[in-house]
Write a structure and sequence with these properties.
The chain is of the alpha+beta class. It contains 4 helices and 7 strands, in the order E-E-E-H-E-E-H-E-H-E-H. The chain is 26% helix and 21% strand. The longest helix has 20 residues.
Length: 205
């Protein structure tokens, strides 16, 4: 099996599509980049039932549960998971007392449903390593060894998925993959810096 390749930061412009599922910013929000096959869906803890009912939550994917760390103001706690049907994992975590910390959840799936269980485990492992390397949040996960159960061509595909995840998460308010301010260089496993987005609201004439 091949090790994950190095991933230089992208400087290309990207188009971001956001969808407010119930028409408000406090409900479920989906996000995707241009013609990408990767879609993220995010919800607050109170809107989690709506997220679980969405079609995206029935697919194979990865997810993050994020909330404030009561032991250190300004730091976040984060749990990273994967599942064949993400909704069953999210429902179980919502009822789990050990997961009371999270206030927001985000899931990442493929629009064309081509992610497998092995892909999900690889993405989970890489995201955990990136969060540890960034040092911005405290992982609630236990020790997770690197997952090396993919052939080289599929690793390349999943690294492209990670390219999109590292853009989507900060836009949706999840900065756990980004190195803390003042770091001289990203620690081992950290992903490349997030891009800058410019928002323009056009008023009807």
């Amino acid at each position: 099996m091949s090790e994950a390749p190095s991933r230089p930061p992208s400087r290309r412009g990207r188009t971001l599509k956001l969808y407010l599922a119930d028409g408000t910013p406090s409900g479920v929000i989906t996000a995707e980049l241009g013609v990408s096959s990767v879609r993220a869906a995010v919800a607050s803890r109170t809107a989690l039932p709506e997220l679980i009912r969405r079609e995206e939550a029935s697919r194979t994917g990865v997810y993050l549960l994020v909330g404030p760390d009561p032991d250190l103001p300004g730091r976040q706690l984060v749990y990273v998971g994967e599942g064949d049907q993400v909704k069953s994992r999210l429902a179980a975590h919502d009822a789990d007392e050990s997961k009371e910390f999270f206030t927001r959840a985000v899931l990442i799936v493929s629009k064309d449903e081509n992610l497998t269980k092995a892909h999900g485990r690889y993405l989970e492992s890489r995201i955990i390593a990136a969060i540890r390397g960034a040092g911005r949040a405290k992982l609630v996960n236990g020790t997770e060894p690197p997952f090396k159960g993919l052939p080289e061509p599929e690793i390349a595909d999943m690294e492209r998925v990670l390219d999109e995840i590292e853009i989507l998460l900060p836009v949706l308010g999840f900065d756990v993959l980004q190195p803390t301010i003042g770091d001289q260089a990203p620690a081992a496993g950290a992903l490349s810096p997030a891009p800058t987005f410019i928002a323009e609201i056009r008023k009807a004439k």
